[in-house]
C-alpha cells in the first residue's frame, strides 16, 4: 500500500522537531500571542451558554450514533445526494481519491481550480497530486493562501498560518503578488481580495471539503468567515466536495447541536460569518454539476479500535490546539502532519495505521497529559485516554526495545541492595556529563531518554551513602 | 472501467465498517435549550456586535430613501414599494460581471436568529440566487419581526434543508493575521439589517 500522505514525507520524529522549534523565539512569540488571545475569547463565548455541557453531551452522542450506524447512514446520504442530481464517489485511500478528483477536473478541461480550505484535501495531498496531473489548485482562504504562497506548511487546523506574524505575511505577499503593501491586517486582506477576485469570477471548477453532511436530506454544510467559501461554492459550474466518511450527522435537526458547538469552539464567535448549505444541485442557482467524494483513508481502520475510534467524532474546531501547553511551545509543524496538536497526536497515528512508523509512533508522546484538551473538546473526545492507549500500542509494536531492555536491567539492579549501591556510585560519574545541573545527552542506551528530555545530574552523594555516614550506628 | 472500480471501493469501505462491529450508541439526550428568548431587541444587539449596521424601522420605503449606491441589485420578487426613486435598480438576468460591478444589493430573508444575530437566505421570496448577495460590496437585508427565531434549533426547524441556504452573521471577515478581525475580505464589506416592526 502507498504511504498515507497524512504525515509529511521525511518529517523527523516529534522530539527532534520540537527541539528545533523550541529554539525559534519568533515562532514561540507568535504562537503564545495567538493561542493566548483565542483561549480567552473561547472561554468568554462558551461562558455565555448555560447549556454548554448538555450541548457537548449531545454532540458526543450524535457522533457516536454516526459511528455505530456509519454504513447505513452513508448509503442514505448517497441516495439523497443522487436523488438531487449529485454524483457520489467512494475512495479507499488518498491515491484513489486524488485520481477521482483529477479525472473530474480533466473531464471539465480545467487547468486551474479554486479551493475552499479543507482538511480532507490537505490530508490526502490533493494539491500536489493535481499539480502533478497538470491542474493548479488555488487556495482561497487567506491563511491557506499565505501558506501556499510562502511555500510553507500549515501549523494549525483553523488558522494554518498562525505561526506567521504580519511582517512575515507582508514579505510573502510582496514577493509573490508583486505588490506594495503595508503590514496592516486590513491592507493585507485587501491585497488578497484583489489577488483572488478575478479567479473567483472566471474559474469553472471548485473543490471544497465539508464540515457536515446530513444523511437524511443529503445536504452538505460548510462554515467559513471570509466569503471565499461562498465564492467557490456558488460561482463555478462544477463543484467537487471531498469529505471523510465520518463527517455525517443523521438528521437535519442534529445540525442544531453542531452549529452551536463549532463556532464558539473554533473562532470563539456566536456564529461564523457565513455558513453555506446545499443539496445536490439547484437549477438556476450555483454549480450545475456536483460531485461528492467520500474518503476512507484510514478511517475504517480507526473505527476498529474501541478506544481510539472516538477521535472520529472530531469536528476540526482546533480548540484543543489552543489550550495545549505542548502545542504552544512547539508549534504545529513539529507534529509533521496536517493534523497537529492534541487531536493530531491521536488522529494522525491512527490514520497512518502503522505503529512501526517512527514519526507517527512518536506523536502519542507529544503531550504532558494535562487534560486541558478534553475539557475544551466540544464532542468530549477523551484525548488523554486515547494518548495512553496509543502509547501502549507503540510499546507493543516495538517489542524488545532499548527502553524495555533498560527497564529489565533496572529491575535487576533494584532487586539487590548491593547491586543498587554499586549502580549509584557508577551513576555519580554521570555528573561529569552535566552542565548547569542538567544532562542533555547521555550515551546509549540513556540517549533514548535524553533525546526527548533532560535529566537532572545525580547528586554528589547518594542518600544511602549519606545515611550510612551520618545516621548509621556502628 | 471507472464505474466498476468505484463500486469495488464502495463495497470494500462498507464491508470494513461492518467488520469494525461498533456497538449501537445510547439514544441522544437533548438536554440543551431548544428555544431562546428571541425578540427584536436581542437580535438587533447581536447583529450590531458583528459591526453590521442595524436599524429598527416601521416604514421600509422611508428607510430605503437613504440607500447608498447608484446601481443596486434587487431580486425579481421584492415588493414594488421597496424600489424607491433615486436608485438605479438592476434586475435579473444579470451576468457575473454585472453583479461584480453593482454597488449593492437589497433582499429580504427567510429566517433570522436572535441568539446569534444571524440572517438566513433560502433563495425564496425577495432573496434571489446566492450570487446576488455575494458579489456586490454592500448588502441591505430587510427582516420582518415575525421572521426572527429565538435560537439556532428554532431557526433550523423553520428551514427547508433541500433549499440552497446561506447563513450570514455580519459582514465578511477574517482573523487570519495575528487574530485581528478585518471586515470585508471576499463577501460584502458592509451589511445593513433593517428590522421591520
Automatic annotation (TrEMBL), chain A:
Domain Lactate utilization protein B C-terminal, first and last residues per copy: 396-470
UniProt GO molecular function: 4 iron, 4 sulfur cluster binding; metal ion binding
Domain LUD: 76-294
Keyword Iron: yes
SUPFAM superfamilies, per the entry: 4Fe-4S ferredoxins, NagB/RpiA/CoA transferase-like
Keywords per UniProt: 4Fe-4S, Electron transport, Iron, Iron-sulfur, Metal-binding, Repeat, Transport
Domain of life per record: Bacteria
Pfam family, one: LUD_dom
InterPro entries: 4Fe4S_Fe-S-bd, 4Fe4S_Fe_S_CS, FTHF_cligase-like_sf, Helical_ferredxn, LUD_dom, LutB/LldF, LutB_C, NagB/RpiA_transferase-like
Domain (4Fe-4S ferredoxin-type): residue spans on this chain: 311-381
GO BP, one annotated term: lactate metabolic process
Entries under NCBIfam families matching the protein: LutB/LldF family L-lactate oxidation iron-sulfur protein (TIGR00273)
Protein name as catalogued: Iron-sulfur cluster-binding protein
Amino acid at each position: 500500500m502507498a504511504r498515507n500522505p497524512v504525515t509529511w514525507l521525511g518529517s523527523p520524529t516529534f522530539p527532534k522537531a520540537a527541539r528545533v522549534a523550541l529554539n525559534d523565539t519568533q515562532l514561540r512569540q507568535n504562537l503564545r500571542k495567538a493561542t493566548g488571545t483565542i483561549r480567552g475569547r473561547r472561554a468568554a463565548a462558551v461562558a455565555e451558554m448555560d447549556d454548554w455541557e448538555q450541548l457537548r453531551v449531545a454532540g458526543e452522542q450524535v457522533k457516536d450514533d454516526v459511528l455505530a450506524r456509519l454504513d447505513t447512514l452513508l448509503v442514505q446520504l448517497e441516495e439523497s445526494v443522487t436523488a438531487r442530481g449529485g454524483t457520489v464517489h467512494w475512495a479507499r485511500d488518498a491515491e484513489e481519491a486524488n485520481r477521482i478528483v483529477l479525472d473530474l477536473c480533466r473531464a471539465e478541461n480545467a487547468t486551474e481550480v479554486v479551493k475552499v480550505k479543507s482538511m480532507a484535501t490537505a490530508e490526502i495531498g490533493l494539491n500536489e497530486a493535481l499539480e502533478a496531473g497538470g491542474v493548479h489548485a488555488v487556495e482561497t482562504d487567506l491563511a491557506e493562501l499565505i501558506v501556499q504562497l510562502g511555500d510553507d506548511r500549515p501549523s494549525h487546523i483553523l488558522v494554518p498560518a498562525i505561526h506567521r506574524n504580519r511582517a512575515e505575511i507582508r514579505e510573502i505577499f510582496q514577493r509573490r503578488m508583486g505588490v506594495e503593501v503595508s503590514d496592516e491586517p486590513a491592507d493585507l486582506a485587501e491585497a488578497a481580495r484583489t489577488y483572488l477576485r478575478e479567479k473567483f469570477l472566471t474559474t469553472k471548477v471548485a473543490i471544497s471539503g465539508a464540515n457536515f453532511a446530513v444523511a437524511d436530506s443529503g445536504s452538505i454544510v460548510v462554515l467559513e468567515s471570509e466569503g471565499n467559501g461562498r465564492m467557490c461554492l456558488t460561482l463555478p459550474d462544477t463543484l467537487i466536495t471531498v469529505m471523510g466518511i465520518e463527517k455525517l450527522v443523521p438528521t437535519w435537526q442534529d445540525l442544531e447541536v453542531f452549529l452551536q458547538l463549532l463556532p464558539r469552539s473554533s473562532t470563539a464567535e456566536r456564529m461564523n460569518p457565513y455558513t453555506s448549505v446545499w443539496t445536490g444541485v439547484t437549477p438556476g442557482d450555483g454549480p450545475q454539476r456536483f460531485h461528492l467524494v467520500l474518503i476512507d483513508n484510514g478511517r475504517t481502520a480507526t473505527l476498529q479500535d474501541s478506544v481510539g475510534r472516538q477521535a472520529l467524532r472530531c469536528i476540526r474546531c482546533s480548540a484543543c490546539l489552543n489550550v495545549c501547553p505542548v502545542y504552544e511551545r512547539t508549534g504545529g509543524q513539529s507534529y509533521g502532519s496536517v493534523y497537529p496538536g492534541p487531536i493530531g497526536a491521536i488522529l494522525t497515528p491512527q490514520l497512518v495505521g502503522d505503529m512501526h512508523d517512527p514519526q507517527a509512533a512518536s506523536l502519542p508522546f507529544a503531550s504532558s497529559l494535562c487534560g486541558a484538551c478534553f475539557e475544551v473538546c466540544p464532542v468530549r473526545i477523551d484525548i488523554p485516554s486515547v494518548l495512553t492507549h496509543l502509547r501502549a500500542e507503540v510499546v507493543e509494536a516495538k517489542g524488545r526495545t532499548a527502553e524495555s531492555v533498560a527497564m529489565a536491567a533496572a529491575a535487576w539492579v533494584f532487586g539487590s541492595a548491593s547491586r543498587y549501591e554499586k549502580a549509584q556510585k557508577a551513576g555519580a560519574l554521570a555528573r561529569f556529563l552535566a552542565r548547569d545541573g542538567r544532562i542533555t545527552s547521555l550515551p546509549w542506551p540513556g540517549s533514548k531518554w535524553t533525546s526527548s528530555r533532560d535529566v537532572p545530574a545525580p547528586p554528589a552523594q547518594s542518600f544511602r551513602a549519606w545515611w550510612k555516614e551520618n545516621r548509621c550506628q556502628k | 472501467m471507472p464505474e466498476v472500480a468505484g463500486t469495488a471501493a464502495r463495497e470494500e469501505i462498507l464491508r470494513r465498517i461492518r467488520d469494525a462491529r461498533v456497538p449501537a450508541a445510547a439514544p441522544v439526550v437533548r438536554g440543551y435549550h431548544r428555544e431562546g428568548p428571541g425578540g427584536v431587541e436581542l437580535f438587533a444587539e447581536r447583529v450590531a456586535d458583528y459591526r453590521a449596521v442595524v436599524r429598527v424601522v416601521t416604514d421600509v420605503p422611508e428607510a430605503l430613501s437613504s440607500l447608498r449606491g447608484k446601481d443596486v441589485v434587487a431580486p425579481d420578487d421584492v415588493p414594488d414599494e421597496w424600489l424607491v426613486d433615486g436608485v438605479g435598480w438592476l434586475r435579473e438576468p444579470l451576468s457575473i460581471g454585472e453583479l461584480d460591478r453593482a454597488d449593492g444589493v437589497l433582499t429580504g430573508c427567510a429566517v433570522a436568529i436572535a441568539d446569534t444575530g444571524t440572517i438566513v437566505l433560502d433563495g425564496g421570496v425577495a432573496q434571489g440566487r446566492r450570487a446576488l448577495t455575494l458579489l456586490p460590496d454592500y448588502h441591505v437585508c430587510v427582516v420582518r419581526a415575525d421572521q426572527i427565531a429565538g435560537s439556532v434549533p428554532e431557526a433550523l426547524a423553520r428551514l427547508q434543508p433541500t433549499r440552497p441556504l446561506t447563513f450570514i452573521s455580519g459582514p465578511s471577515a477574517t482573523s487570519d493575521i495575528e487574530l485581528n478581525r478585518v471586515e470585508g475580505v471576499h463577501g460584502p464589506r458592509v451589511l445593513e439589517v433593517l428590522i421591520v416592526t
